[in-house]
Amino acid sequence: MAAGANADFLSLQLERVRPFLPVAYEREKGFGAKIKKVEGIEVSSRNLRLPIQVSPGGKFGYCTFAGTSLGLGGASSTQVATLTPVGIRFNVQINRDVQYYTNSAEKAIAQVLKKELENAVPEFATQIDMELQGDGTGVRLISSNYSANVFTAAAATWAIGVQNLRVGQDVAVYDTTLATNRGECTITAINLAPATRTVTVNSAPGGSVTGDKLLPSGVSGANPVTLFGIPYHDAVSGTWLGLARGTYTNLVTPSVAAASAALNVSHIRLLVNTVAMRNGQDVFDDGDWNMCMHQCQQDAWMDLGDNITEIALNAGQSQKATDLAGNARQKPVIAGFQTMVGVHYNPTRLELVDFKNWGRGEAQPIDFYKDRNGNMYFTPVSTTDGSPLTSDLFSIHTLMQTFVANPQRAGFISGLGVKSGY
To answer: How far, in Å, CA of 278 to CA of 302, rounded?
Structure first.
């Protein structure tokens, strides 16, 4: 007989599985995590009213006091901003057979139900972080091209694009004016490469064209209102919580226009000084101030260090190599402010944010959705015959909206150039 070959004994060999499950996508939630910790105000179905003083009042002038008129006076002016919470949910559904096949260590490296619970919380936080980069319209991607179920985001518009979407996410396709909801579809693939940046869906709604926008599922009607993010509260025009910035110019956020130039020191100095001139020099004496930016702007800031030709070595460390690329694990300090760097920020902007100026109006804090008996798992029902489906569903939900106490107590640089490769 011939010598035994490996193929003859495959049936005796054990198949090994590495008992680790790495995550092949980012889970960033920096800004959203900070907003979760800010002031929360319980609200009902009636609007939350946020009074704000928009002018100081009183009339300053001179008088001889020689029997002349003293003159009349004036008073300050107050207005009220209003907001209404929006309902947000994050649903997870798992078939029963998957749970049966993975409910012990002898069958699988992880129990799927338990793992999905662990995944849901950070993913919900990541989705909130993505929403907070928007202007309250819910737009996640502005397409520069559409063809055969593929939406492309150009370099000029990718700030609202592929980085803030997920494979498997259901999205609503709107026309460029947000007047028409064409329908919903599911994302099947995302290409994050700078040269392509595409989103592929299973079946785009009829009428989809270049310029269409992708929003989270569940929105409806023209001009939907979603979670108010940084560009909503920190802006130079438009309406803020029912008040027109054109009428109440004190609600205009201090800003610097970079006009497509690379970030430089003069931009930072002008931003900081503009905020101080609008709010008073002591504006930075309190609060929780941070500069928030995309990695490409952190890179641009580090590029400025390339112009420094003299490198000082610390005493006693002259033999230690100097890291010319900087310390990627250490957040830079810019103009004395701590920085927050993240992949979801608009790469063409840099934000100066006081987190103590932010707040939440909420009728329902973030929590698992439960029935009257406290159960958080639900059995979906067939839409065909009404019978129960053999799967379990759970949901994280909230009914909230964000606000800032004073939109002038912030600042941003807009129109920054984006380095090649990002």
So the answer is: 29
